[in-house]
Amino acid sequence: MRAYKDVFDASITDPAGFWADAAQAVTWTRAPRRILDDTNPPFYRWFPDAELNTSVNALDRHVAAGRGGQAALIYDSPVTSTKRVYTYAELLDETARCAGMLRSLGVNKGDRVVIYMPMIPEAVITMLACARLGAVHSVVFGGFAPHELAVRIDDVQPTVVVTASCGIEPARIVEYKPMLDDAVAMSEHPPAHCVVVQRDRHRCDMVEGRDVDWHHVMATASPAEAVPVAATDPLYVLYTSGTTGKPKGIVRDNGGHAVALLWSMRNIYDIEPGDVFWAASDVGWVVGHSYIVYAPLLYGATTVLYEGKPVGTPDPGAFWRVIAEYGVKVLFTAPTAIRVIRKEDPAAKHLAEHDISSLKYLFVAGERLDPDTYHWATDNLGVPVVDHWWQTETGWAIAANPMGVEQFPIKAGSPTKPMPGYDVQILHDDGYRCEPGEEGSICIALPLPPGTLPTLWNADARYEASYLSEHPGYYLTGDGGRFDSDGYLFVMGRTDDVINVAGHRLSTGAIEEVLAMHPSVAECAVIGVPDEIKGQAPRGLVVLKAGAEPQELTSELVALVREEIGAVAAFKMVDVVPALPKTRSGKILRKTLRGIAAGRDEPVPSTIEDASVLEALKTVLGQ
Ligand code: COA
Ligand code: AMP
């Protein structure tokens, strides 16, 4: 085994050599001769002359190599009492026919397909089918409301939207189809067709001429051959929250993505082909894209698609049941899931009912892993609990403890060390590098490694402005943190207006835009406040218009956010305040508010217009 330092240093001193080696794990239709195109900084492209098909790498090549009978996808759905195993041969067959179906509806290479679906196999099959055609999928998380879906439809302009009649949350049925109909009605670029998976729990109405029934069309669809694409062609666009209400369309290319994910499976997660890997996330998030769908399949492992919750479906032993039943080797989830299990079963009594001896590692990401949760999981599971830090933008871990390279002693609260290709630097506001122990802005020297975003969808200028302009030559992660003297990275939280609620990334700016729509609201600010289970929860501070005395303000604002953004925003707290702290030029002091909400003793900024407003707010926020 090579030591971490050798591996990491090689990736920084000779990136082309390092990633050329890693690229050998991919089956190319045209192998790369050039590894990095750095002729147009700050835009970089990996494997610019290579060609491949991602679905061939995820499916066909494993069938050709004799893995056709191996489980590729295990669908386990406690909410519908369904379990089904798809072998690689079956998943390939379904994917090829789904690609044929999409092609018959007009989807070709480069066209976009929006996927708005619950955690059912058809969602994975559609993603892979798009990859097969060289079409670009854009999955929208099911917890988003019609307006958010419409914004994404208008930005990506899909030929087809694929949906299901419903999703099943423990306490209610989520009717996707009427939400899609509303979104299509709002959008300026409606799709030509909508494909609908009719589920038994709730069947929906169809729009004549536009909507087609998945099961009807799939029954007669002819399989489509894979279309080779350039390594630099987009595989998907995944929207994520920025600091404004307009989400950012993160672009993922085909070649760099396959290379990086394959590298990560062996080296970070210590997985072998045939092992069972379970990312308990949702296909609507980046963790679902990378580690439910693509990485395990690219690597010839078995992936688990779980349509349920950590608790309540039916009890806090649900995760341990799935591990025992399928022999899961790696579980990957968000700390919030562990916190919610711990809350319901603090003594981990449910663990005793299941044999989880197959489990070798628990990986967590999506939000900061607090030391209490780390210790509870370590003590009860008896396996390494590995924190790793990444973002939708990067698609795979920026920092981790690489179990397949070198296992470092774990320090609670740290995702350990930078991964290959990520030249992580902590910078002060004025651009100079912080010493170990000093906190600053976490940045990554360009170029970013393969698999990370090459740009934003149709928005090169926004990509530069959002990520590359603050510190020229560096990518700005938006997180603050520090290295310690052993080279361990500590990620302390966002330095912008992004918050993390139950591992779901939300923009406070987007919530503010909705609150401002209410006729009684003069101005507002939304901040993330600590939450015992979800890590953070959004809290709205609103100033009312003169004379406004709404009776049901809180419930109206809560309903408005749910209607406009969706249930996922989990917006429940509103405080009416007399004023918001501002600079003399009228800018709301959000950074100060964030600090107060996080419980820090914030200094009064010299630019403040009226310091007494800040003092009053400290009282409201319980300081
Ligand atoms: N489709 C539609 N609605 C959804 C949804 C989906 N896919 N996922 C969540 N929602 C709804 C929930 O039903 C809930 O609605 P409610 O207000 O009517 O109760 C709302 O969105 C908020 O959901 P969430 O914040 O997830 O809270 P929860 O109480 O339903 O569940 C956890 C809490 C901790 C169990 C859950 O967040 C979880 O399992 N998190 C794991 C972390 C994770 O998946 N992170 C992704 C990145 S790794
Ligand atoms: P997302 O794009 O939804 O994956 O969210 C990315 C953000 O989640 C990061 O910028 C961090 O703020 C936070 N995050 C993800 N993983 C971690 C981690 N391991 N530790 C601390 N914060 C994390």
Automatic annotation (TrEMBL):
<dbReference type="InterPro" id="IPR045851">
    <property type="entry name" value="AMP-bd_C_sf"/>
</dbReference>
<dbReference type="Pfam" id="PF00501">
    <property type="entry name" value="AMP-binding"/>
</dbReference>
<dbReference type="GO" id="GO:0070013">
    <property type="term" value="C:intracellular organelle lumen"/>
</dbReference>
<comment type="similarity">
    <text>Belongs to the ATP-dependent AMP-binding enzyme family.</text>
</comment>
<dbReference type="InterPro" id="IPR020845">
    <property type="entry name" value="AMP-binding_CS"/>
</dbReference>
<dbReference type="InterPro" id="IPR032387">
    <property type="entry name" value="ACAS_N"/>
</dbReference>
<protein>
    <submittedName>
        <fullName>Propionyl-CoA synthetase</fullName>
    </submittedName>
</protein>
<dbReference type="Pfam" id="PF16177">
    <property type="entry name" value="ACAS_N"/>
</dbReference>
<dbReference type="InterPro" id="IPR025110">
    <property type="entry name" value="AMP-bd_C"/>
</dbReference>
<dbReference type="Pfam" id="PF13193">
    <property type="entry name" value="AMP-binding_C"/>
</dbReference>
<dbReference type="InterPro" id="IPR042099">
    <property type="entry name" value="ANL_N_sf"/>
</dbReference>
<dbReference type="GO" id="GO:0050218">
    <property type="term" value="F:propionate-CoA ligase activity"/>
</dbReference>
<dbReference type="InterPro" id="IPR000873">
    <property type="entry name" value="AMP-dep_synth/lig_dom"/>
</dbReference>
